[in-house]
Amino acid sequence: SREWHLVARPHGWPEAEDFALREAAVTAPAEGRILVRNKHFSVDPYMRGRMNDVKSYTPPFKLDHPMDGGAVGEVIASNAEGFAVGDHVLHGLGWREIADMPAKHAVKVDPDVAPLSAYLGVLGMTGLTAYAGLFDVASFKEGDAVFVSGAAGAVGSQVGQMAKIKGASRVIGSAGSDEKVKLLTEEYGFDAAFNYKNGPVRDQLKEAAPDGIDVYFDNVGGDHLEAAISSFNLHGRATICGMIAQYNATEPTPGPSNMALIIGKRLRLQGMLVGDHTDLQPQFVRDVAGWLASGELKYQETEVRGIEQGYEAFMGLLRGENTGKMIVSLD
Ligand code: NDP
């Protein structure tokens, strides 16, 4: 079985030499364990942080060890009660063809309810991030005007649509290409969208939200957060979910210069980690499954095929080559 190892810690943008696809032996599962043939694994922006040797909310990847992350696959051998060959499971040992794990670390999923890859995206971690970040952390309420950055990505595309479903007065998104902007307004029902590469975010947001915004869902940081602070109405709320604009930065990035406005506008800016919101999981799955079935909620995935493409898929994600969830599918 092949697996991806981190072999050197990237400085700035990762390079191909920082990673190696290596062969690992597969043995029969020990007591209480299962072997899973992965069908899809997830590449996510947070993995860039785990390539640095710094203390964070998730431990750094170890050099010369397989990387990990969300994956779904099929059980091919079981030495654990309750798991049979042919079962499909969601688990945390991605970046490899065959995963050997304690059965208690795997959750059974039903491929008849949704395509397996959906458990990594719209019905999985990124979907829950959108749901919890909008409804719980930002305390979204009907009539709010919502701005979301990274709006054509896995999290952002769901945030904007969920806000519309729940009665937002206006939803504005930003993304990094004109095609993505078109998708947001023509397919996902955003009221306005702009390409942040076409001009200053602050000006483009002012134009897209002439009456201001009440909620900002931040996936990007930097100039996007600064623009949101300027456009906020009184008592605006921001969910600080990600700051992808700085993940590959080697120098401190310019920050919002208008933080003092937070006082006068009585803003609330709150960081979030999806792992704190697992209590919302049942409600999230019920709502999202319903919206998918009714056609109110749409999603897209960008699929890269073949384990040898794992590194390229991750880099493509950082470069914005994905629309919706970036997934690596194995043959
Ligand atoms: P996405 O599907 O949104 O993929 C990443 C996207 O980021 C790219 O497609 C690209 O789109 C955009 N991007 C890359 N560089 C920049 C840049 N310099 N400025 C603006 N946009 C950029 O990923 P996810 O939906 O999985 O994650 C979105 C954000 O949410 C990330 O910041 C991530 O770290 C965070 N997150 C946080 C969680 C939490 O618990 N706090 C959980 C899950 C995700 P484009 O073409 O538009 O530039």
Tell me what the structure shows.
The chain is α/β, with parallel strands linked by helices and 331 residues long. It has two domains: 2-121 and 299-329, Quinone Oxidoreductase, Chain A, domain 1 (Alpha-Beta Complex); 125-275, Rossmann fold, CATH 3.40.50.720. It is built from nine helices and 15 strands. The strands form three sheets. Strands 3, 4, 5, 6, 7, 14 and 15 form a seven-stranded mixed beta sheet that branches. A six-stranded parallel beta sheet has the order 10-9-8-11-12-13, with helices on both faces. α2 packs across α3 (154-165). The longest helix is centred in the C-terminal third of the chain and has 14 residues, at 281-294. NADPH dihydro-nicotinamide-adenine-dinucleotide phosphate is lined by residues 44-46, 126, 129, 150, 152-156, 175-177, 180, 219-220, 241-242, 244-245, 272-274, 317-318, 320, 322. Keywords: Oxidoreductase. Residues 15-328 form the Enoyl reductase (ER) domain. It holds the Pfam family ADH_zinc_N.
